[in-house]
Write a structure and sequence with these properties.
alpha+beta; about 30% strand; six-stranded antiparallel β-barrel; elongated; 23 strands; Copper Amine Oxidase, Chain A, domain 1; Aminopeptidase; six-stranded mixed sheet
């Protein structure tokens, strides 16, 4: 009798273990020349099993699916670039670009950094036949297209529903955030009054925003700048400050022409028709053209006479994970008409918790190159951790003051378009100098 009971128990155990192995079937794929054990899984789209000869699998906690089967199952299309080893997914007005073995991806032009475990791979299958498939992270692609993803652990099943996922429900494989740009509505009134702060002119619009930021909740200001909790809730003692920075894919730089729209910036006391916002845009456009000839990804906070809030400028930089941020300005002084020359401002990592790289080197590279090419007077580099575009950008950032609109000597140069070309070239040279020496 005992023997029968024991036999029955062993048989039940074997059957149970067999069902477990059926649910969690282990197979092997070859990735980058190495054979890797992966756990097979299934995917449902709107209640129907996704058809694929090659099983989706789980690796390092991420579900990977053959790209063509997934994309076509979601009603999108995909184009493969064999030279670049990249895939472009198109769906309605959205585009997703992924590259094999790269953490850098793009959603409608926005740069996203994937977690190490979510990097797309070429996986060679041996069953049901020998074939290499492009494997992409299911959750990232599905939610980037606007779909909702759930996980059924009992059935070892990823479930996709093609209803638009709400921003609050979106779970991404990166920390880019999903905040929309809440740019302030354009005001019909224009304020031309200026205030002197630390020997730099700050327009009333900027001063008001700086004061509001000081009064507002610290967390809300960081969130408005597109920063995640992990980025602004840092233990200062655990920060690792580096002299150099590492770029992920093409280097991304944000060019920020100061002021705009209702905020004209400084008005020249030498030539009253000249204001700062027009000059900053001219130099920014010239610099943009020069940078376009490189392999950098270049973004501008504005390309027209438009008012953009300071926090929105920082947000653009943070949410695109740019490596560099450069704000372009001109100076003015009603008190000292003899004040002239170029200076570059930065916010030291010692004063700004979200910075993890030394900031002064970028400012030095910019200043040295500007002085070399223009022959202008150097006013040095200055630590200005009070400025929003410097203290709310997590990357390496600088603000270049390219001359005094209140000084007749500086204005003689500034009114010459060839001199503006020199300023743009100087900024370009400074960027190149920094990249060559401080970017890995």
């Amino acid at each position: 009798m005992k023997k029968i009971i024991l036999t029955g128990f062993l048989l039940s155990a074997l059957l149970l273990s067999g069902s477990v192995f059926a649910e969690e079937q282990i197979s092997q794929v070859n990735i980058n020349g190495k054979s890797i054990d992966v756990r097979n899984t299934n995917v449902k789209v709107d209640g129907k099993i996704l058809k694929s000869d090659f099983s989706p699998y789980i690796s390092s906690g991420r579900t990977f699916v053959p790209i063509r089967e997934l994309v076509e199952g979601l009603g999108a299309e995909v184009k493969w670039d064999n030279l670049e080893k990249s895939a472009l997914i198109k769906f309605e007005k959205k585009e997703i670009k992924l590259k094999i073995d790269s953490k850098v991806s793009y959603i409608s032009g926005k740069k996203i950094i994937l977690n190490e475990s979510s990097i797309p791979k070429l996986a060679k299958y041996n069953e049901p036949k020998e074939e290499t498939k492009t494997m992409v992270p299911l959750r990232f692609v599905s939610e980037a297209l606007g779909y909702k993803v759930d996980w059924n652990s009992e059935e070892n099943l990823a479930v996709i529903t093609t209803e638009k996922a709400k921003d609050s429900d979106l779970i991404t494989d990166d920390n880019s955030g999903t905040k929309e740009n809440n740019s302030e509505k354009k005001s019909k009134k224009r304020k031309k009054d200026l205030s002197l702060v630390n020997n730099q002119y700050i327009s009333n619009s900027e001063k008001k925003e700086m004061n509001n930021a000081k009064k507002s909740n610290r967390i809300s200001a960081y969130k408005a700048a597109g920063l995640s909790e992990d980025e602004y809730n840092i233990d200062p003692g655990k920060r690792k400050i580096t002299k150099t920075i590492k770029k992920e894919g093409p280097l991304t730089i944000v060019i920020d022409p100061g002021h705009g729209g209702k905020d004209p910036g400084a008005n020249s006391s030498v030539i009253s028709s000249i204001n700062e916002k027009e000059l900053t845009l001219k130099v920014a456009e010239k610099l943009y053209e020069k940078l376009q000839a490189t392999d950098y990804e270049v973004l501008m906070t504005r390309n027209s006479d438009e008012y953009i809030k300071l926090l929105d400028r920082a947000q653009l930089s943070n949410e695109n994970n740019s490596e560099l941020f450069l704000s372009i300005h001109f100076n003015s002084s009603d008190e000292n008409k003899s004040a002239k020359g170029i200076e570059v401002l930065y916010a030291s990592e010692k004063n700004v918790i979200i910075k993890t790289a030394e900031q002064k080197h970028f400012a030095k590279c910019l200043l040295n190159s500007l002085i070399d090419i223009t022959g202008s007077s150097s006013r040095g580099i200055k630590n200005r951790p009070d400025l929003i575009v410097l203290n709310k950008t997590k990357n390496v950032s600088a603000l270049a003051e390219l001359g005094f609109l209140s000084n007749s000597s500086d204005m003689d140069s500034i009114m010459n378009d060839e001199y503006l070309d020199l300023l743009a070239q100087g900024l370009f040279n400074g960027i190149q100098d920094y990249v060559n020496n401080y970017v890995e």
